[in-house]
Write a structure and sequence with these properties.
GO terms for molecular function: carboxylic ester hydrolase activity; S-formylglutathione hydrolase activity. By secondary structure, the protein is α/β, with parallel strands linked by helices. Helix content is 35%, strand content 24%. α2 packs parallel to α10. It is globular, with a radius of gyration of 17 Å. The structure holds glutathione.
């Protein structure tokens, strides 16, 4: 693992690394914020999953999360959104919602994607373990959050693995990939036509199947241009209500899909997770 950059921030360090991922079979970059508390003891690990077209750097530069992470004493790990590099398949039509920058946090089963697109195993297994080998983060105190495609990733990964995480939150998540164009396009490419396999990565379905509950917070901007066609927060709210899953789902008046929205509620999300990651 090679350290690409290290910058002081709110008494801690904003770090960026490059490494050879065994799971993705390519070189990857990721970012890690270590709060000042990490210098003297182990701290909880929050994983942030970004949305379509992002790398790890969008979050680092635009989410304004470092101050809250320093105050709350939590590390934040930001992976990239897909495998990268020469030889990694991309959408032949060059669209931004499939292929590079659009891994959807699943393990692809279909060629050509199945060669590298294993973002589910990468963010759940390989990357946290790698970070914990070299930094003082506590894998017994993990939470996960994300935005849009990364909101889908955070919710679905946490719902599939409730024993791994203390809490989950999302900004403008793709709530029901089985029922929106982004999800249908990505899942049919990566997972083929087995809709039962799709359902095992659909947060609304996973809510209905849940046998235990994680603390869950979701914020959705009311002026988000993707809200009705792609994100479908009301379906998540309905699934939670039907299944008596206790989630806090909030519509935020006037906010759009951007990092201006994310930054506005970032402190609350970090505090929410830190509260559930107490020793
Ligand atoms: N490229 C798309 C927008 C894609 C988009 O909004 N991506 C979101 C995640 S779904 C994002 O975080 N973009 C990066 C950024 O704002 O820094 C467009 O032109 O409409």
């Amino acid at each position: 693992m090679e350290r690409v950059s290290a910058v002081r921030s709110f008494g801690g360090q904003q770090l960026r690394f490059k490494h050879a991922s065994a799971v993705l079979r390519c070189d990857m970059h990721f970012s890690l914020y270590l709060p000042p508390q990490a210098a003297t003891g182990s701290v909880p690990l929050l994983t942030w999953l970004s949305g379509l077209t992002c790398t790890d750097e969008n979050f680092v530069q635009k989410a304004c999360a470092q101050r809250a992470a320093a105050e709350q004493g939590v590390a934040i790990l930001a992976p990239d959104t897909s495998p990268r590099g020469e030889g990694v398949a991309d959408d032949p039509e060059g669209s931004w919602d499939l292929g590079l920058g659009a891994g959807f946090y699943v393990n692809a089963t279909e060629a050509p994607w199945s060669e590298h697109y294993h973002m589910y195993d990468y963010v759940l297994e390989e990357l946290p373990a790698l970070v914990a080998e070299q930094h003082s983060v506590d894998l017994e105190r993990q939470s996960i959050f994300g935005h849009s495609m990364g909101g889908h990733g955070a919710l679905s990964i946490a719902l599939r693995n409730p024993e791994r995480f203390r809490s989950v939150s999302a900004f403008a998540p793709i709530c029901a990939p089985l029922q929106c164009p982004w999800g249908e396009k990505a899942f049919s490419a990566y997972l083929g036509m087995d809709r039962e396999l799709w359902a095992s990565h659909d947060s609304c379905e996973l809510i209905r199947r849940a046998t235990s509950h994680l603390p869950m917070l979701v914020d959705q901007g009311a002026e988000d241009s993707f809200f009705e066609e792609q994100l479908k927060t009301p379906l998540l709210a309905a699934a939670c209500q039907e299944s008596a899953y206790p989630a806090n789902i909030r519509m935020q008046e006037g906010y759009d899909h951007s990092y201006f929205f994310i930054a506005s509620f970032m402190d609350e999300h970090v505090a929410f997770h830190a509260g559930h990651c107490a020793p």
